[in-house]
Batch of 2 targets.
Target 1
Amino acid sequence: MGVEIVPIRPGFGAEISGVEIGRPLSEEDRVAILRAIDDYAVLVFRNTGLDDVGHVEFSRIFGHVEKMPSFKKLFRSERTARDGKTAREAGPFFVTFGNLTDDGRIVDDPERRKLLAGDRMWHTDSSFMVERAAYSALLAYVVPPVGGHTDFADMRAAWDRLPAGVQARIEGLEGDHCVWWSRHVSGADISEAQAMGMPAARHPLVHRHRSGRTALFLASHIRAIPGMPPEEGRELVAELIEQATRPESTISVNWNVGDLVVWDNLATMHRATPFDDLKHRREMRRTTMRDGAPPVTGDDPYGAMYSGAVEKLSQLRGEPA
């Protein structure tokens, strides 16, 4: 039957059917999917039936699938927990999102809930890494009955809608992205001084997308714009995010178990939306793909960044890692 594409809105977001992504793809279907992600930036595949192996194999058509570290030691309440693979950490290529502990209970630890709240801010996956993530692929395992959907913003359309004066003002500017800054802003137990003391990655606010269009590259991870006073830079970022996330530039994806959504991090921002996280369960599993050729053997930038970050944050707090 071949790949069928139903746009969610003109030029942004599409539901894809007519292809079983859990099986090896024909070259024709592979090319059609890659063309669709360039055209629409967000692709929704319903009721995929994917398992972990199929999830990773499908992800490989978009680029190098990154290894993901364990995030358990980011939460002080879990640093004495057992090491190694758990029910909520399926393997080296996945990061698990949601509100469940290793044994499937709903998280009620206030510190962890505050850290998780950062995902409800507009952001771009891995913008805090020097090597930016080109794509993400998120698969739904458990979804709440109400809420918990995902909003996406079209950063190419957002650039197109900016007044010429604003475009001229921000071209050439860069942002310092730090995941701990967004966690500080979202209310986690990380002070402004601590967040400012953590490593950051610097990226242009405006870039040329592979499609040939110009796009904004923003995230709530941005803590400063070099060359601008801190508050002035943060106000500019907040203004740009507000303009980029107006209704005419956004879509919302509601989840069902088994749905997979793939998005282009270099053309979008996204955010999780609230649900009653002390009553209902949510569990999602994500792969993250770097654009271009696979890196050299042993390359693991995420592991190095997170292990170093836990140690650095512990030092800034004056506590053992």
Note: Confidence is low (pLDDT under 50) at residues 75-88.
Target 2
Amino acid sequence: MQNHRPAGDKNPGIPINPEVPLTLEGSAILHQMFRVRWEEWNGLEEERRRAITEEAAGTLASLEGSGTAAYSVVGHKGDLMLVHFRPDFEELNATELRLAQLGLWRYLEPRSSYVSVVELGLYESTVKLLDSLAERGVSPGSEEWRQAMEETLERQRAAMAPRLEPEIPPARYLCFYPMDRRRGETKNWYRLPIRERQRMMAEHGLVGRKYAGAVKQIISGSIGFDDWEWGVDLFADDPLIFKKLIYEMRFDEASADYAVFGPFWVGIRFPATQLSVFLAGRVPER
């Protein structure tokens, strides 16, 4: 994403509060969920439906190469989910505006959307750096502090570059959900010391690593962008993996005590060439 820095602030992304972990941000993400107005759509003459479908399929095909994927939604929450990965918010907005000009848009009812950016949390690196700075007597917020933080970010950004701008995995199934870290009278994630949070996140990550190869997980940050704090995308060829992974994660401390989950959306991926099959009321092929 473009980095628009305020005048007079050399490092606006560097936290002064040592309890705030460093993060890396990458691609901008938009999830769009729709319900098809089936009665209106099926009431059109066949020739008109064919023309609208061909127009939409052509546009969707061109967007697929830029980081767009379509999913047939399972369940009552909607029918169609479009997921877009783009370099920045302007390209996301250009994509949704382009889609809104299609004839098909008249027959799609927005049900939900979600805006976020790929986020890699650096709890472990942050804690190690804090220990090093404390040993050297470097004061939080000082120029030396900020420089050390910036150097750590640059080093991690280079090492994790492929993860910051991922392609949408080609897996057949997607599970997407937003989540928060609990903030209540008895459980407040943001009042815990950073080393406690780092320990719990490390344990949380161990569960996810067990499923490497069976599921691809992409975490995105949405604080300041949408109604929840993070978005989670899980991609797999076997949807039962979603249940097993999320169920097991519920038992670790970070989730059991501090996680709050939003609505879950499950979709079956299909290419633009299968849009006509989807709009005919059949499950599209891969």
Note: The beta strands are 23-36, 68-74, 80-86, 108-121, 173-181, 216-221, 230-236, 259-261, 265-270.
